[in-house]
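1st attempt posting a full record on here, be nice pls
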Amino acid sequence: MTCKRVAAACVGAALSLAIASFGSGASAADTTTTPTWKPAEPAPAPPPLDIHGFFDVTFANDYITPRGLLVTNTGLTTQIVNGLTFSLYKNPDTWINSFSVTVGTFNDLWSQQNNPTVGSWNEFDWWVSADWTIAKYWKTGVTYITFLSPPGNFSQERNVEPYIRFDDGALTGWAFTFNPYVKLFYAISGSSTVVVGNTGKTYDVEIGLVPTLDLKKITGVPLTIAAPTWVTVGPTSYWNRGVTGCGPTTTIEPCSLSNAGVFTTGLALKESLDWLIPTRWGNWYGKGGFQYYHIINDSLLLAQTFTGTANSYATAHREVWVGYGGLGFTF
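the predicted structure (as tokens):
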């Protein structure tokens, strides 16, 4: 009898626990909110690159320097520029908005040089520059650049170039901009950068502007049209250190001295090729145009008799037209 009572008590306790559990479970089910599904948060975008590279190749009929020295005027000249830019600082809310350092090289290949040692390799330059933006609209910087002649036409030339440019496009946001600038070219040492001028410790100044129309802002076409224009000025000794030969028939006639060097203007077209080449391979572009040079300084005409672009002073080229085309990319 005792065992039956104990068994009945155990069964009753079990049933009571089951009923209690069922009731509490039902209550919990009634009061619990069903969780709502949410899509996963997208991964954050990677930070922009602070290292940028560039490569540019230009094919032209002549090679004339920004200072007005006509280096080659026969055959084809091919010029290759490449390098890296390191963006070290960016802050739009401070007086100095950005700071970067660039290292690069320039190579000039002349199809008719045919040097037995270096072939068509006519010139090699390397440079390092520091550039910064001030008060959002002023671009300024300084470049140290060395000119080298693989065939040995001149000794190493060491130069420094500080510049300042007003970025009126950043100020106005217009499709048409002027981009005025001033650049000092100081020759530290080496051969004269215009052949018959002082060899080192001399300078000239480039004063110019680059009127530019960005058609993408107007029509959506990724094409810019620019008119690079500048004039160079400097001390008379930069252009001529006393070398004679500016006469039509004699090599002893002195050159007339002038502080002006060359005036130039042109038309440059540049089109983005992102419609043809995916941007994951870099931002490619094609370019073409012409540049007209008017030689003001007679000593630059005399220099042509040394570079071989004129047989005599009388046949030197005061007007020079350079046509070019090319392509390049940045990343």
